[in-house]
Amino acid sequence: MTDRTEPVWDWPDPFIHETRVEKQHIDDFQHTNNVVYLTWMAKTAWEHSKALGLDFGTYARLNRGMVVRRHELEYLAACREGDPVLIGTWITGNDGRLRLRRRFQMVNGATGEVLLRGLTDFVCINIETGRATRMPPEFVSTYAVTADVGGDG
After folding, report:
1. pTM for this one?
2. Which is it for the CA torsion 136, 142, 143, 147, positive or negative?
3. Domains and CATH numbers, the chain
């Protein structure tokens, strides 16, 4: 039996990465520093990509990668040292050409309280040149939309 409160996710079937707030994450206000949340979003996106079979080895072989164009974060509640944090992510947009969008939701794993909602827009680049370029077919099919969010497509 667990004392964990099951989170209520914004959309079904998120990819979930779990972490815990550690001492080095805490700022002068005694809660998790804002930059840490962004780091967790990036880590979760990368863990999801690897779980889908797109690791950096694949990126290098294809000479293509998805890089951040824009982040949007809405901080809703603080978390503190020792708190378990569940980070859910969904792919909510893929234009099949250049752009991909991910949504994120962070939840306190002990209480179920929503800590943050965010999104990241990515663009496909040629790794050698750093220039935006069309997604390879592997990205189009593997980064399929996992949640239908109006306006993200």
Report:
1. 0.93
2. positive
3. 15-142 (3.10.129.10)
